[in-house]
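pasting for the record
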Amino acid sequence: MVRGGCRVEICGLGMGESPRRKMQVGKRNTADDDVDKIVAAEMEKLSLKEREVVYEDVHGVSDVVQETPELIANCLERMDREIDLINEKDAYEQAKLQSLDLVTGRQFRLSFLRFASFDPRMAALHLAHYFRVKLELFGTGTLTRSRITLEDIGEEATRVLELGSMQVLPNRDSKGRAVIAFAPSALEFEMASHNDLISNMTKAVWYLVSTLSEDEETQKKGVVVVLSMSGLSDRHEKCHRTLLRRLTMIAQAVPYRFVCLHYCYNSSSSFPLALLSILALAANSLIRVRMRTHKGSLSECLYKLMSFGIPVQEFPFTEDGGIQLASHEKWLEKRRKKESYLSMHPQIQGAVDLPSKYDVLWGRGKHIFRHPGNRLLHELVETYYDQYNQLSREGKTNLADQVVAVVHGYSGRFMKPDNESGMWVEASNMEAREKVSHKFRHSRAVSLKGVYRISTEPIAAGGGKRSRMMFNGS
């Protein structure tokens, strides 16, 4: 099977035959050496072109598939034929009886094609696997629901989710990909029996990952996962091992485009290395060849992650296993608003959960100021600032329209938070123009006060420049 030119097998819960593998551990070999050997062995199976695909995915330089109507129609037709060839698809057939419109729906199947980089066979196998795992986790009642809600996963799983051991970072990485951060040490194992915790955590992870698959841009550009093992002890070793296997199963079931897994651990402890071995063996080849390990303290690992464009300033975990919940609690609040709104309004046109890096956002705070789209707008205002001040009122309006057109030209949008739905919605052209005009007026007012001057320097996360305010002193 080929994914974007890369052969993979899908293993996991009932998904084909997966041979048992044994680590060849010599007396002089360490666990991470063995994992390196597993990854190296997988890479050796790939052609030069396939290795390039993996490298481009990991570093975020791969091109998004151009989804022409001809390509989509052809792949959907071939996907239908591939589904007919699958023998073990009882859950799929059950879902088809419940809701033919959902199971055969164009947008639903398109999400699986995007996951598989438009490989129809891989998309078909993944679709059957998706319903198999979903049926096991949630039963028949939610099998054909297009969205799993907090109510569906239950109160206990929601409480586990609220712990924040797994979070979606509030901004995408420098390549426009969504980022999930997970720290097993943040779990409170004393809150319930191990079996209950694993079951609830599995449902919570399905929910969190599936929220990302709702977003079209994330379907296309993919998801990066960062596993932080800081503060992890072997107190609940068996639980950690089982949990990691279950999470790997979820990662291979939900239709999102996985592009890279960063495994961060402190080399002074042997337990994270043992978990790394389990992860490497439980994952399919698509995940294994995209695994990258980082040894050292959390701060050292975060420094390494910067080279991959990860927004490390928003990383929610600390060296001692502590956790920051502010962003996660806001995310959960938005999800509750969205689910409440969608229960009464099934469709929201042009609304998204996670804006793209080129979008200009309404709002205040550091995360808004640091957003790449807002910094790019700041650069545009700085570029045209002198020209704007010399124009008539009509000329200023026309220039603001031109700036809006530039933002739209690099696929940016002007996005406002919708308090009712908890999502971001696109502003009208008139609202966007007023946003730009306000930015010009604000810059002029601040300049006249002499509070700061504006200079530029390269954006740390990559691409373009960013603006920096430098106080003159008085």
